[in-house]
Amino acid sequence: MIDEAGAVFENIAKKRGLDFKTEKRNTDYMEFGGGNKICTLKIWYDSEILKRRSFLKVQINFVESICFPFKKGWLIGLLTGKHEELEALFPEYAQYAQKIPFSIYDIREILSEKVRAILTREGTKARDFLDVYFICRQFGIKLEDMERCIVNKTNFALKLYSKYRSNLKEKTSLLDSRKLFEWGEERALLLAEIDERDFYSFLNEFQEFLKKIISNLNYRF
Questions:
Q1: 41: which strand partners?
Q2: In the Cβ-directed half-sphere of 7, how many Cα atoms lie within 13 Å?
Q3: What is the 3-state secondary structure (H, E, C) of 73-136?
Q4: pTM score, two decimals?
């Protein structure tokens, strides 16, 4: 499977002037982790914005616990509608304007993944807390309704990866000391203002929810 996926990405890279090769031993292009349960593909390009070589990361997870059925979604390009002048000037225009159908996670799955990442990922990122906040508010999802899925997903990850168990121990300590959430550069990068009173109120409730999740896990320290 990974050879087939690599071949597809290598073919696309050649057509688009990107840099990718199916070389499993070359970590510039392919990295395996979690006992070969996860493969990360790096497709390199020259960034006009950053003025340096950068890469697009595509991660393939071969083992996962899924709570909700996949949904059908559409990848929509930057160009929408008809642009006859562009179509006449650039033969490849249609490729960038078309909608591409593909399978996507249910938003509840994404939320559960975010919460699991907060508990098991190395380090703490404010953006994960912001994502949970925005998803709950925008989609009207109640955290307590996600408890079973989050517990199952976290137990599944802890069973597979010992480093996640170590990370959870550290996160539990930070949670107990009220130091799990700290602002990073995300605050300056926010594209829209947030209701800080509502956010901090949510944050307090969320951290209590995390303690409940931890108490229901199969692992104790």
A1: 30, 58
A2: 4
A3: EEECCCCCCCCHHHHHHCCCHHHHHCCEEEEECCHHHHHHHHHHHHHHCCCCCHHHHHHHHHHH
A4: 0.79
SS (H, E, C) the chain: CHHHHHHHHHHHHHHHCCECCCCCCCCCCEEEECCCCEEEEEEEEEECCCCEEEEEEEEEECCCCCCCCCEEEEECCCCCCCCHHHHHHCCCHHHHHCCEEEEECCHHHHHHHHHHHHHHCCCCCHHHHHHHHHHHHHHCCCHHHHHHHHHHHHHHHHHHCHHHHHHHHHHHHHHHCCCCCCCCCHHHHCCCCCCHHHHHHHHHHHHHHHHHHHHCCCCCC
Contacting residues for 213 by C-beta, under 8 A, at least 6 apart: 115, 119, 147, 150, 151, 154
Q: Nearest Cα to 200, choosing from 139, 129, 143?
A: 129
Domain boundaries, the chain: 2-61, 71-104, 107-215
Question: What is the reported pLDDT for 10?
Answer: 87
pLDDT less than 50: residues of the chain: none
Residue that the structure tokens 């990718």 belong to: 20
Evaluate whether 5 touches 40 at the Cβ level (below 8 Å). no
Q: Is residue 66 classed exposed, middle or buried when 0-12, 13-18 and 19+ CB atoms within 10 A define those classes?
A: middle
183, 126 Cβ separation under 8 angstroms: yes
Predicted pLDDT at 175:
93
